[in-house]
Amino acid sequence: MASASGRIQRGPKPFRKAIERITRRNPNPHNGEAFYNLGLTLRCLERHDEAYDVFYKATWNQSWAGAGYHALAEIDCLRQDWIAALDHLDRSLRFDTDHLRARNLKVLVLRKLGQGSEAELLRRDTLGLDPLDWWARHLGREKPGCDLQTALDMAHDYARSGFFGEGVELLKAAAATSSDLPDQSWGAIRWSIIPVAGSS
User: Fold this and answer.
1) Disulfide-capable partner of 88 in 72, 101, 109, 125 (CB 3.0 to 4.6 Å)?
2) How many structural domains does the chain have?
3) What is the largest CA-CA distance in the chain?
4) Do 128 and 113 share a domain, yes or no?
5) Mean pLDDT in consecutive groups of 10 residues from the start of the chain, 200 residues
6) How far apart are CA 108 and CA 158, in angstroms?
7) Domain hosting residue 113, numbered range
8) Pairwise CA distance, residues 184 & 190, whole Å
9) Does residue 118 sit in the same domain as residue 179?
Protein backbone atom coordinates (compact mmCIF):
# COMPACT_ATOMS: atom_id res chain seq x y z
CA MET A 1 0.00 0.00 0.00
CA ALA A 2 1.27 3.45 -0.87
CA SER A 3 2.51 5.64 1.95
CA ALA A 4 0.46 8.66 3.01
CA SER A 5 3.12 11.10 1.80
CA GLY A 6 3.32 9.32 -1.54
CA ARG A 7 -0.45 9.42 -1.96
CA ILE A 8 -0.55 13.17 -1.26
CA GLN A 9 2.29 13.92 -3.67
CA ARG A 10 0.70 11.98 -6.52
CA GLY A 11 -2.86 13.00 -5.70
CA PRO A 12 -5.99 11.08 -6.73
CA LYS A 13 -5.14 10.75 -10.43
CA PRO A 14 -3.21 7.42 -10.37
CA PHE A 15 -5.94 5.72 -8.37
CA ARG A 16 -8.70 7.13 -10.60
CA LYS A 17 -6.83 5.72 -13.61
CA ALA A 18 -6.56 2.34 -11.91
CA ILE A 19 -10.28 2.37 -11.12
CA GLU A 20 -11.11 3.32 -14.71
CA ARG A 21 -9.07 0.37 -15.94
CA ILE A 22 -10.50 -2.26 -13.58
CA THR A 23 -14.13 -1.13 -14.03
CA ARG A 24 -14.18 -1.16 -17.84
CA ARG A 25 -15.78 -4.60 -17.96
CA ASN A 26 -17.09 -4.89 -14.43
CA PRO A 27 -18.42 -1.91 -12.44
CA ASN A 28 -17.90 -3.92 -9.26
CA PRO A 29 -14.35 -5.33 -9.54
CA HIS A 30 -13.19 -8.19 -7.33
CA ASN A 31 -10.52 -6.05 -5.66
CA GLY A 32 -11.37 -2.82 -3.82
CA GLU A 33 -7.81 -1.71 -3.05
CA ALA A 34 -7.78 1.12 -5.62
CA PHE A 35 -11.02 2.54 -4.20
CA TYR A 36 -9.64 2.35 -0.66
CA ASN A 37 -6.37 4.06 -1.62
CA LEU A 38 -8.27 6.77 -3.47
CA GLY A 39 -10.37 7.29 -0.34
CA LEU A 40 -7.23 7.64 1.78
CA THR A 41 -5.81 10.17 -0.67
CA LEU A 42 -8.98 12.26 -0.70
CA ARG A 43 -9.12 12.14 3.09
CA CYS A 44 -5.53 13.38 3.33
CA LEU A 45 -6.57 16.26 1.08
CA GLU A 46 -9.51 16.92 3.45
CA ARG A 47 -12.03 16.13 0.70
CA HIS A 48 -14.07 14.09 3.14
CA ASP A 49 -17.36 13.96 1.24
CA GLU A 50 -15.64 12.51 -1.82
CA ALA A 51 -13.61 10.14 0.34
CA TYR A 52 -16.78 8.93 2.05
CA ASP A 53 -18.37 7.89 -1.25
CA VAL A 54 -15.21 6.11 -2.40
CA PHE A 55 -14.75 4.24 0.89
CA TYR A 56 -18.30 2.96 0.50
CA LYS A 57 -17.37 1.62 -2.91
CA ALA A 58 -14.39 -0.19 -1.35
CA THR A 59 -16.74 -2.00 1.07
CA TRP A 60 -18.36 -3.83 -1.83
CA ASN A 61 -15.27 -6.03 -1.92
CA GLN A 62 -15.08 -8.39 1.07
CA SER A 63 -11.29 -8.15 1.34
CA TRP A 64 -11.50 -4.39 1.89
CA ALA A 65 -14.87 -4.17 3.63
CA GLY A 66 -13.47 -4.13 7.17
CA ALA A 67 -10.96 -1.39 6.41
CA GLY A 68 -13.50 0.55 4.36
CA TYR A 69 -16.17 0.56 7.07
CA HIS A 70 -13.56 1.59 9.64
CA ALA A 71 -12.51 4.53 7.45
CA LEU A 72 -16.17 5.53 7.08
CA ALA A 73 -16.56 5.46 10.86
CA GLU A 74 -13.57 7.76 11.27
CA ILE A 75 -15.25 10.34 9.01
CA ASP A 76 -18.55 9.83 10.85
CA CYS A 77 -16.70 10.74 14.06
CA LEU A 78 -15.28 13.88 12.45
CA ARG A 79 -18.89 14.81 11.69
CA GLN A 80 -19.93 13.79 15.22
CA ASP A 81 -22.47 11.39 13.74
CA TRP A 82 -22.08 8.82 16.48
CA ILE A 83 -24.97 6.59 15.39
CA ALA A 84 -23.55 6.17 11.90
CA ALA A 85 -20.08 5.66 13.34
CA LEU A 86 -21.29 2.86 15.60
CA ASP A 87 -23.08 1.17 12.71
CA HIS A 88 -20.00 1.30 10.49
CA LEU A 89 -17.74 0.04 13.28
CA ASP A 90 -20.06 -2.88 13.92
CA ARG A 91 -19.93 -3.69 10.19
CA SER A 92 -16.13 -3.43 10.21
CA LEU A 93 -15.87 -5.79 13.17
CA ARG A 94 -18.07 -8.36 11.45
CA PHE A 95 -15.27 -8.79 8.93
CA ASP A 96 -12.46 -8.68 11.52
CA THR A 97 -13.49 -9.07 15.14
CA ASP A 98 -9.89 -8.52 16.28
CA HIS A 99 -9.48 -5.15 14.50
CA LEU A 100 -7.94 -3.30 17.44
CA ARG A 101 -8.27 0.21 16.02
CA ALA A 102 -11.94 -0.37 15.23
CA ARG A 103 -12.53 -1.78 18.70
CA ASN A 104 -10.84 1.18 20.40
CA LEU A 105 -12.68 3.71 18.27
CA LYS A 106 -15.91 1.95 19.17
CA VAL A 107 -15.06 2.51 22.86
CA LEU A 108 -14.88 6.26 22.19
CA VAL A 109 -18.14 6.22 20.22
CA LEU A 110 -19.98 4.24 22.89
CA ARG A 111 -18.84 6.78 25.48
CA LYS A 112 -20.18 9.60 23.30
CA LEU A 113 -23.51 7.76 23.16
CA GLY A 114 -23.62 7.50 26.95
CA GLN A 115 -22.95 3.76 26.96
CA GLY A 116 -20.01 3.82 29.34
CA SER A 117 -20.53 0.33 30.76
CA GLU A 118 -20.58 -1.25 27.30
CA ALA A 119 -17.51 0.78 26.35
CA GLU A 120 -15.57 -0.44 29.37
CA LEU A 121 -16.51 -4.06 28.73
CA LEU A 122 -15.27 -3.74 25.16
CA ARG A 123 -12.05 -2.05 26.27
CA ARG A 124 -11.30 -4.83 28.75
CA ASP A 125 -12.14 -7.46 26.15
CA THR A 126 -9.68 -5.81 23.76
CA LEU A 127 -6.95 -5.98 26.40
CA GLY A 128 -7.79 -9.66 26.71
CA LEU A 129 -6.94 -10.01 23.03
CA ASP A 130 -3.79 -7.90 23.30
CA PRO A 131 -2.62 -6.82 26.77
CA LEU A 132 0.05 -4.63 25.12
CA ASP A 133 -2.43 -2.57 23.11
CA TRP A 134 -1.48 0.91 24.28
CA TRP A 135 -4.54 2.63 22.83
CA ALA A 136 -6.87 0.44 24.90
CA ARG A 137 -4.68 1.06 27.92
CA HIS A 138 -4.73 4.81 27.35
CA LEU A 139 -8.52 4.67 27.07
CA GLY A 140 -8.39 3.26 30.60
CA ARG A 141 -6.48 6.39 31.72
CA GLU A 142 -3.16 4.56 31.93
CA LYS A 143 -0.17 6.84 31.44
CA PRO A 144 1.61 5.96 28.18
CA GLY A 145 4.68 3.84 28.77
CA CYS A 146 5.26 3.14 25.09
CA ASP A 147 7.91 4.69 22.85
CA LEU A 148 7.10 8.03 21.30
CA GLN A 149 6.60 6.63 17.79
CA THR A 150 3.83 4.40 19.12
CA ALA A 151 2.34 7.40 20.94
CA LEU A 152 2.47 9.38 17.70
CA ASP A 153 0.65 6.59 15.85
CA MET A 154 -2.04 6.59 18.54
CA ALA A 155 -2.35 10.38 18.38
CA HIS A 156 -2.94 10.11 14.64
CA ASP A 157 -5.65 7.51 15.30
CA TYR A 158 -7.33 9.98 17.64
CA ALA A 159 -6.90 12.90 15.24
CA ARG A 160 -8.28 11.10 12.16
CA SER A 161 -11.56 10.71 14.03
CA GLY A 162 -11.68 14.25 15.39
CA PHE A 163 -10.52 13.46 18.93
CA PHE A 164 -7.82 16.10 18.78
CA GLY A 165 -7.83 16.93 22.47
CA GLU A 166 -7.25 13.31 23.38
CA GLY A 167 -4.39 13.11 20.89
CA VAL A 168 -2.69 16.19 22.28
CA GLU A 169 -3.17 14.94 25.86
CA LEU A 170 -1.55 11.66 24.90
CA LEU A 171 1.50 13.33 23.36
CA LYS A 172 1.93 15.61 26.36
CA ALA A 173 1.88 12.61 28.68
CA ALA A 174 4.22 10.47 26.60
CA ALA A 175 7.75 10.31 27.93
CA ALA A 176 9.96 11.49 25.07
CA THR A 177 13.64 11.46 24.33
CA SER A 178 15.25 13.09 21.34
CA SER A 179 16.25 9.70 19.94
CA ASP A 180 12.77 8.23 20.32
CA LEU A 181 11.18 9.83 17.31
CA PRO A 182 12.37 9.87 13.70
CA ASP A 183 13.02 13.46 12.61
CA GLN A 184 10.48 13.30 9.79
CA SER A 185 7.70 12.46 12.23
CA TRP A 186 7.77 15.92 13.79
CA GLY A 187 6.23 17.22 10.59
CA ALA A 188 3.43 14.70 10.96
CA ILE A 189 2.74 15.93 14.50
CA ARG A 190 2.68 19.53 13.31
CA TRP A 191 0.40 18.69 10.36
CA SER A 192 -2.21 16.56 12.10
CA ILE A 193 -2.20 17.57 15.75
CA ILE A 194 -0.67 20.93 16.69
CA PRO A 195 -2.44 23.28 14.22
CA VAL A 196 -5.86 21.92 15.11
CA ALA A 197 -5.24 22.11 18.83
CA GLY A 198 -3.92 25.65 18.47
CA SER A 199 -7.01 26.76 16.57
CA SER A 200 -9.53 25.41 19.06
Assistant:
1) 72
2) 3
3) 54
4) yes
5) 49 58 58 80 91 91 92 97 98 96 98 98 98 97 90 94 93 66 51 44
6) 10
7) 97-134
8) 11
9) no
